[in-house]
Amino acid sequence: xxxxxxxxxxxxxxxxxxxxxxxxxxxxxxxxxxxxxxxxxxxxxxxxxxxxxxxxxxxxxxxxxxxxxxxxxxxxxxxxxxxxxxxxxxxxxxxxxxxxxxxxxxxxxxxxxxxxxxxxxxxxxxxxxxxxxxxxxxxxxxxxxxxx
Length: 148
What we know:
Elements: H1 3-14, H2 18-30, H3 34-46, H4 50-62, H5 66-78, H6 84-94, H7 98-110, H8 114-124
């Protein structure tokens, strides 16, 4: 960012422009200025910027703050972010919540996220490459099916 561009972006962010807040957050993150980055991403997220909430979800997930990560991913999804369903699915799969992960991966696929396709395949695959057992509504395992 040039000095003029950064100054204009800062002025827009200070006046409440969520896109400018997000741009500053990303810029500071790239420069390794974590605290400033977090400040601007938080402000953008609070203003309803979906990509900022997705990025905050990722930051929280990498710091082990799983509940906050889920919250931010949910906010991003509600705002229309197309990466957040995949990211939430990934978080849930790592927590062993495979059925929830599957649901979010499918939403990610519906939103056009290509990573969700691969991740759905992985979550449906059990250990050793075998299909993960499923349960019916009564809580009993469903019989394995094979193609005709």
